[in-house]
Amino acid sequence: MYPPGAKLVLESDNKVIYPVATKKLNLRCSVKKGNWGRREHGSDTKNNNSQELGTTSVSSEELFEHLMSIVITEGKRQTIASVTGCDKPVIERAFEGVVTAVGNAENSTKLEEMGHLTLTWDRPLLKDADNFTCEAFALNPDKSSISLSVSLEITAAEPNLSDLLDYISSNDRQVELLKQNWTFLQETFNSVQANILQLQSKTNDFDTALAGIKSQNIQSGTFKCRHVTIKFARPFDFPPKIFSSFIDLNFESNYAVQYTINYVSVNKTHFTVRCTLGQYSQYINAEIEWIAIDV
């Protein structure tokens, strides 16, 4: 559990806007958790002037406990955007299309923060430079409303020749990197396309081979041997080849038995068979199994 208190931090990745050369301006206001100071409604402001890029302003409040909202203004307190609770940030009409905003006053992606609000200008201009103020509204341990604010000045200047050369050099490096990425993607695409063509060729060969395979029509059954016609369950494309064998054979004599099975006719839809006994054969009862295969 963090003790009551907070640190309000307003920071930017650029302290000076150079039109054309400055691609983005990010302004981030965050409320850090914890008891950072021992002064009531006091502030400790720090500006990092030793670096050309990046500047930070900090203010501390001992009794800052529960964050409710964050507001960022410019100049004479003209509101740019605000965020309340877990709602999406609201950008004022005058700044719609000029800045984008992300943030949350309930939590943050950083564990040490109560909330944050970040504004981004794409290709900032001279007129975008100003004195920016971030104000955070909260409740103290007694549930009374309190606020904490911090300001940060962003200036602007026309880029000099050195700035422009750095910008052009940076762009050239980015263009070269994009060309390399494009070449890599093109080579990858060509490789994938070659694999697709190879798979398509194999698929076509498979389809051709599959088309050449004729599914066989095979049917079977049994019949009691006499003069009988058997109808196929489904017609053949051509008269099939019939194979048969005895399943059961009963006769009334121990003498030699002569038995003849004649396939009288075979066509695409049925076949006719006639069974006959030999000259000296007694009565015989036979069951025949048959199988028909297309050829």
From TrEMBL:
It comes from the Eukaryota. One of its GO terms (molecular function) is carbohydrate binding. Residues 36-58 are annotated as: Disordered. One of its GO terms (biological process) is cell adhesion. Residues 45-58 have a biased composition (Polar residues). Residues 228-293 form the H-type lectin domain. It holds the Pfam family H_lectin. InterPro entries: H-type_lectin_dom_sf, H-type_lectin_domain. This is DSC-2. The lineage of its organism: Eukaryota, Metazoa, Spiralia, Lophotrochozoa, Mollusca.
